[in-house]
Amino acid sequence: MQHQTEEHWDLIISPKNRLLDLQLREVWRYRDLLLLFVKRDFVAQYKQTILGPLWHFINPIFTTLTYMLIFGNIAKLSTDGTPQLVFYMSGITIWNFFSQTLTSTGNTFIANAGIFGKVYFPRLISPLSTVASRMIQFGIQLLLLLSFVVYFKSSGLLPHMQWFNLIYLPAVALAMGGYGLGLGIIISAFTTKYRDLNVLVGFSVNLLMYATPVIYPLSAVPERYKPYLTWNPLSPLIELFRYMCTGTGTFSAGSLAYSAGMMALILFLGLLQFNRVEKTFMDTV
Amino acid sequence: MSTVIKVENVSKQYRLGKVGTGTISHDLNRWWHRLRGKEDPYLKIGETNDRTQKGSTDYVWALQDINFEIEQGTAVGIIGRNGAGKSTLLKILSRTTAPTTGSVKLKGRVASLLEVGTGFHPELSGRENIYLNGAILGMTRREITRKFDEIVDFAGVERYVDTPVKRYSSGMYVRLAFAVAAHLESEILIVDEVLAVGDAEFQKKCLGKMSDVSKGEGRTVLFVSHNLGAVKQLCNSGIVLKNGSITFEGDAENAINQYLSQNKVEGLSSKYEKTVLENKDIELIFAEIKDKDTNNRSEFDIMEDIYIELMLSCNKIITNLYGYIAIKNNQEELFIESDTYDIPPNTLENLHLGNNKFIVKINSNTLPIGEYNFYISFASTHSDSFLVDVPKEILSFKVFDNSTKRGMRRKAKSSSLLQWTPIYVE
Lengths: 285, 426
Prior knowledge:
The structure holds two protein chains of two kinds.
Chain A: E1 11-13, H1 24-29, H2 31-45, H3 55-74, H4 84-106, H5 108-111, H6 113-116, H7 125-154, H8 169-191, H9 196-210, H10 226-231, H11 234-246, H12 253-277, H13 281-284
Helix pairs in contact in A: 2-7, 3-4, 4-7, 4-8, 4-9, 4-11, 7-8, 8-9, 8-11, 8-12
Chain B: E1 3-15, H1 21-35, E2 47-48, E3 59-71, E4 75-79, H2 86-93, E5 101-106, E6 110-113, H3 126-136, H4 141-155, H5 170-182, E7 188-192, H6 200-216, E8 220-224, H7 228-234, E9 237-242, E10 245-251, H8 252-263, E11 271-273, E12 282-290, E13 299-301, E14 306-314, E15 321-329, E16 334-339, E17 354-362, E18 370-380, E19 392-400
Parallel strand pairs in B: 2-3, 4-8, 4-9, 6-7, 7-8, 13-19
Antiparallel strand pairs in B: 1-3, 1-5, 9-10, 11-12, 12-14, 14-17, 15-16, 15-18, 18-19
């Protein structure tokens, strides 16, 4: 007679993941890979360029100058009484962080189909490393922004700006990163089979910027439009970020709580969706 | 010995054709069934995966009810023709895709080498890529550092270790990539056809490394290859797949023999006659293997010329028509490959309407001892629409050696015989 014993298996490959089995322990085991992906993104991006990492500064500087000219001087939009340079640059820095995180994590499955098809590692490593790369880039651009803040503050042009408000910075960065990641992985999960969403995301992120107080302050929005803008959970975060840099911004504890709650919800839904498709996306991508 | 891999009732279904607007209706239907707690309606259909036959549904089973167990320390060769399901099986085992039904249970870490150099970044140096690739394959940074020198040494790229890999020769690139993978510390190693790269010396080194891994270190190796020689050398057991199912499981030698016998095309002979004409523009209606006295034969001595007589029916003049012939032995090794452009003028450009007869001669002392299949097809470089016959493998014959002293012991890949001419010196 065969002797039956309870056998221990290290790994069981089955058709589907359990709904909430995110395998975070495995993600942790592959943390070195995450770091190496981040390093690869940085090193590879500026190989064979003369200016190298200086390009991180050039993009926000020129965008800021363009916005100052068009929105500030031609369209004469309000900047809440703060210097245009700091106003636009703060908006651009935080918005770019969000939009670039969103678009590049949204591409996870399609861009990595080659690797994903040949070797297994926790798929979540890819979008997480993207977020980490973007966060470092955000940090570099933040240095540029803060150096302007220091300059304007010492010239007395930012009277309301308080240095200790900068303690909220990590929270804002995490929340924006969370939105970028959450929305990004939802998109990536849906685009493995149907690419339509990818096309939509390309221009809707641009349009979303105009529905968020990036190039104008919330305070300058006419009363009848304000309710719509406050439904946008990104608005309070942008306003808070600008408040830290310039000392003016419109937000409340309630709106921030709403924003954080929405972020958690989107991130949760994103992880759920990502977990559902990661096993078989290779068959449809 | 304990079982380290247990595959239970694994099946994998694929949907053929394009992913497009048609798929969403199936997706919605599937979702509607799931919502009501019913079974996926498309799992009930689907056909055996035979790529040569046109099926009636868009769903096929790339794998169907696969069951096997592998003990620790064995090297298992998985063989089968193209499309038999080998790669799908490896993909499931290496977790790049999930099975449609069934499960796989594994003990220990799995490293899969479905392709060498996965994730290599051309702009990064050899050193950086070793770390990156190692991490992708599941090594930690510390493990890679410990093995770094060994890897560089195995690949033989010391001088270039800080050069971007885009400057590497393709051989160096592949060597480095294999070296990283070969130094993985996993209990189970899955390898797919990677040995088809690199020069002969490096291939030998790879095989040696892999047999060290299985025999010396007691690790389990799963090896998929068309190179039956490598399978024979490396593996001690084998699994033969055909159309998504296992047809044989046992020791490597028998698996290879089973695969080879399965490979023989049924009813192939020294004579071919098309019984039902399809009225194509160009059609091969008759073919026969003959000796120099025009007798139909299927066995030839190496010293004999072999003649193949072809009768082509031409219903429409096609510009730039050419013919292609390939002669393979029963181990799928290609010995002769030739088209009608090889020896100008291309005689197929001057066909006349009606029947055209050709003789193709295979010179004596060309093919070694063995069994051969004769493959023929027609095509045109002309872009307009035309309909030509593609008969494929239609004839078979044997070559033996009864005329020399060495005779059937001759092992060479050609049957050229060399003359020793004495030169008289004072």
